[in-house]
Amino acid sequence: MAMPLPAPDEAAPGGPPDHEGATVQETFELFSASAPKGWRVELIEEEICVVPPANGEHEEIVTEVVEQVIARRTDQRLRSFTGIGLSLPGAGDAVRVIPDLVIAPKGSFDDREEWHAPAPVRLVAEVTSTSTASRDRLQKIRAYARAEIPVYLLVDRETAEAVVCSDPVADDYAHKSVHKLGTAVPLPAPLGFVLDTSAF
């Protein structure tokens, strides 16, 4: 679900932006500029979403995935990135997302840009939170598939499942495998290893 911009005393000095009459894209830019540190502002399917900082359990899962990718990757060029902004194609306005985790070759984001093209991305991962679960399950599947990101890993804490989406076709993935958390989860190429979710 979309969240409103934080109240003025929580946001940057001056409070939330005055966005009356602005386009969705302009409003998104204003919200991004005034969001408090640690909050993420995303634009997906013409909806602006303001996401609060993640809780500890969420970050423990992300860290566990990162450590396993580094230890088990078959391509030693691959690196893990958190906090990377991606600019994706959309049905209308461009989509702006900040995935929980991005896997891409070293040097893929070696610039000063805030938003990056998805071409080098090999995998994106999202770990659901109360405020993001619905969007992670629906809109982000469409967004990542349209961008032709090879693998989308969704760790759904509410259903206690890991969903591996691969082979993007149009605005969906041709293959989706669902695994209970606590089991071994095979990740397809270009990752090519089995993710152990027993620590999730």
UniProtKB/TrEMBL annotation:
Pfam families for the chain: Uma2
Region (Disordered): 1-21
CDD domains, per the entry: DUF820-like (cd06260)
InterPro entries: Nuclease_put_TT1808, Restrct_endonuc-II-like, Uma2
Domain Putative restriction endonuclease: 34-196
Protein name: Putative restriction endonuclease domain-containing protein
Database matches in PANTHER family: SLL1072 PROTEIN (PTHR35400:SF3), SLR1083 PROTEIN (PTHR35400)
Superkingdom: Bacteria
Gene3D superfamilies: tt1808, chain A (3.90.1570.10)
